[in-house]
Amino acid sequence: MTQNSAAQHLLAVDIGATKAAIAVISDDLKIINQTSVPTGSSENIWENLEKSVKDLISHSGVDIFAVGIGSAGPINISTGEISPVNIPTWRDFPIVENFSNLIGTSKVKLCGDAVALTLAESKIGAGQKVDNFLGMVVSTGVGGGLFLNGKIHNGISGNAGYFGHHSISFEGQECTCGRIGCVELYASGPMMVDSAIKDGWKSDNANFESLSEAARTGDPIAIQSIENGAKALAVGIVNVLEILDINTVIVGGGVIKAGAIYWNLLEKHVQAEARFAKFLQKVDLRQSKLSSDAGLFGAALLAMDNH
Ligand SMILES: [Zn+2]
């Protein structure tokens, strides 16, 4: 059944550490319908995703001509498999093949979730007319994508800008990925919450939203934990900017929804870290314009390349 034969529709998939968002999007980038299923340590993730995709498409009443998938990493764009650090049951999981079978199309493309955000910001968001920038997702996990010389830089396997698992403390804690001192261990939303709890912060609903609310009301432990997370992210950001000699960063993901209580600390620490590299000048730190839909728009834009 085709509701509107003039428009063609895409299926966009954004697989993160907490949930996978899926959307039917028209080729002029309007979200027709969207839903999500839990990921992380949930059981039967693929079965739930498969059912939700079928329901979403049938409810939308359109034909899907291509699929774009942005996924938490690591991924492998040549095999179409993913092994997200925070989704332990998916190792070398054949996501491209599965979607190809489910939708009945060979037009299925895969990229990193932060790469999807980076692509979307470059085309329709905060990165328009910027030739070089680091795009980032800061949420349950921390990811990055690179836009260099006016193009997405994928790297060999599609993991370029694998930001969350570069180390900022070689004598730090061990990460789920196996490395010591990954930036994600300090800068992700849940890690800032854990660090506050260790320092004595108490809440009936211990998540990043309530932590940032506590910080807004002046709770010193909450403020310190958010500051430590923002500083860790700033150190990681400036590492990348120095190595690539670029000075624009676009940050998206759930954590920036905390607003000024987080953003002002991030801005302060980014500029403080960057001052040691004279060539960087002032870092141009921008918030994602596309908010929580950046990954879906990026996946849709990726799918359109197949057109
Ligand atoms: Zn790691």
Number of helical runs? 9
Query: What is the 3D form?
Result: globular
Average the pLDDT over all residues and give the rounded result: 95
Q: Which class best fits the helix and strand makeup?
A: alpha/beta
Gyration radius, rounded:
19 Å
Low-confidence stretches: none
Q: Ions, cofactors, ligands: which are bound?
A: zinc ion
Secondary structure tally: strands: 12
Biggest sheet: strands side by side, in what order?
A: 3-2-1-4-7
Can you summarize the main beta sheet? 5 strands, mixed
Run of helices and strands: EEEHEEEHEHEEEHHHHEHEH
Detailed description of the structure:
This protein is α/β, with parallel strands linked by helices. It contains 9 helices and 12 strands. The protein has helices at about 45-60, 95-105, 115-125, 185, 190-200, 210-215, 220-245, 260-275, 295-305; strands spanning about 10-15, 20-25, 30-40, 65-70, 75, 80, 110, 135-140, 140-150, 150-155, 250, 285. Strands 3-2-1-4-7 form a 5-stranded mixed β-sheet, with helices on both faces. Strand 8 and strand 9 form a beta hairpin. The radius of gyration is 19 Å and the shape is globular. The structure holds zinc ion. Zinc ion (ZN) binds next to loops.
